[in-house]
Amino acid sequence: MGFPAALAHLLNFVAPALALALGLATAARFIVPKAAQTTGWWMQVAINFAVGCGVLLGGLVLFSHDGKLATYAALVLSCACCQWVLSGAWRR
């Protein structure tokens, strides 16, 4: 496998984590009041992306291949919990 193919595989592997991180951080801007937010938008995206990549990697190690529905469910739950903490919603 050459470099372009390996890069395409890597980008396709982390794409769900990036899409979820962008969606959560953007939705939080509309749902959570500005005063309650503890971090900036880019920081929320970066932290959610890192958590998401960790969950996807854990699912790959645990199940020996990616794309399992249990891994995606864990991705959504872990990123949602992370966004809940980052948005300061736990203080209300």
Q: How would you summarize the topology of this molecule?
A:
Layout: H1 3-31, H2 41-63, H3 69-86
Helix pairs in contact: 1-2, 1-3, 2-3
Describe this protein with a few key phrases.
92 residues; mainly alpha; 3 helices
What does it look like?
This protein is mainly alpha-helical and 92 residues long. The chain has a domain at 42-92. The protein is 76% helix and 0% strand. It has helices at residues 3-31, 41-63, 69-86. Helix 1 crosses helix 2 and helix 2 (41-63) runs antiparallel to helix 3. The longest helix is centred in the first third of the chain and has 29 residues, at 3-31. The protein is elongated and about 50 Å long. The model has no long low-confidence stretch (mean pLDDT 90).
Oligomer: single chain
* Helix residue percentage: over 70%
Number of strands: 0
How far apart lie the N and C ends? Answer: 51 Å
| Integer-rounded radius of gyration | 15 Å
Structural class: mainly alpha
H/I helix tally: 3
The helix-strand sequence is HHH
Instruction: Summarize the main sheet.
Output: none
Uncertain segments = none
Mean pLDDT: 90
How much strand? under 5%
- Overall geometry: elongated
